[in-house]
Design goal:
By secondary structure, the protein is α+β, with helices and mostly antiparallel strands. The chain contains four helices and 15 strands. The strands form four sheets. The protein has a five-stranded antiparallel beta sheet. Strands 1, 2, 4 and 5 form a four-stranded antiparallel beta sheet that branches. A three-stranded antiparallel beta sheet has the order 3-12-11, with no helix packed on it. The radius of gyration is 17 Å and the shape is globular. It binds magnesium ion.
């Protein structure tokens, strides 16, 4: 099928989908406090998506049972919300997708629960900065490998490892479109980026090794060595200049 180029009008709809995701993640981040059950975060996600007019992308996707992925500590991605209670010092990754007027928005954030260790704080900051490095590299005429390498180089320069088995992706009418966007790569390789491409960049960074395992629930992905993991994701659009982040809250637009 190849990489689908979106029109300005389609990107504008994706901007609205992205804004819904950003607003709900902002609300959820503030609710991720000691004592809350992960299932309660899913209830809030469902309610806020409905209030803002977004349909949940994840619920029912290949049988996923919830609106939100909640991944705690050594869980990397795809955690299923449930009876687990968040504790002071945990780090929790919240990953949310929505469909608005036929187009997808997808983003993730990792937050500390109460006060967290300096090591956990540094991992979170590094993962968010690795995503920013990838976004900065995602300019028109750059190659996809430039983006992957920027993410990898930043995270590894800080002493962490980058998950290989799960990647970012093209996004549009479908949550997962071409191309795959690995978080490791070689500059100067891969497809050339063009205006109208939309990508979800999503580094998953581990404090230990990059190997993963899957839990008995067949969804939750964990670090193989039990080390901490953080995950940040934005949906971006390639423009003629700097990439536009579609899933961030710009000043003054908070609902
Ligand atoms: Mg994604």
């Amino acid at each position: 099928m190849g990489i689908i180029i979106k029109s300005d009008r389609e990107i504008d709809i994706m901007r609205q989908a992205g804004r819904i995701v950003a607003i709900v993640l902002e609300i959820l981040s503030k609710q991720a406090k000691p004592g809350i059950k992960t299932r309660e975060l899913d209830v809030i996600a469902a309610r806020e998506l409905e209030r803002l007019g977004g349909k949940p992308s994840f619920k029912g996707y290949r049988g996923f049972p919830a609106h939100l992925c909640v991944s705690v500590n050594d869980e990397i991605v795809h955690g299923i919300p449930g009876e687990r209670v968040l504790n002071e010092g945990d780090i929790v990754s919240l990953d949310l997708g929505t469909v608005f007027m036929g187009f997808q928005g997808d983003a993730a954030v990792t937050v500390g629960v109460g006060s967290i260790s300096p090591e956990a704080r540094r991992l979170i900051e590094t993962t968010e900065a690795a995503l920013k490095a990838g976004i900065a590299a995602a300019r028109s005429k750059a190659r996809l490998g430039d983006v992957s390498a920027a993410i990898q180089d930043y995270a590894e320069s800080r002493g962490y490892s980058v998950v290989r088995e799960y990647t970012g992706h093209g996004i549009g009418r479908e949550m997962h479109e071409e191309p795959q966007v690995p978080n490791v790569g070689t500059p100067g390789t891969g497809p050339v980026l063009k205006k109208g491409m939309a990508l979800a960049l999503e580094p998953m960074v581990n404090s230990g090794g990059w190997h993963t395992r899957i839990a008995d629930d067949r969804w939750t992905v964990l670090t193989a060595d039990g080390s901490l993991s953080a995950h940040f994701e934005h949906t971006i659009a390639i423009t003629d200049d700097e990439a536009e982040v579609l899933t961030s809250l710009k000043e003054g637009v908070y609902a």
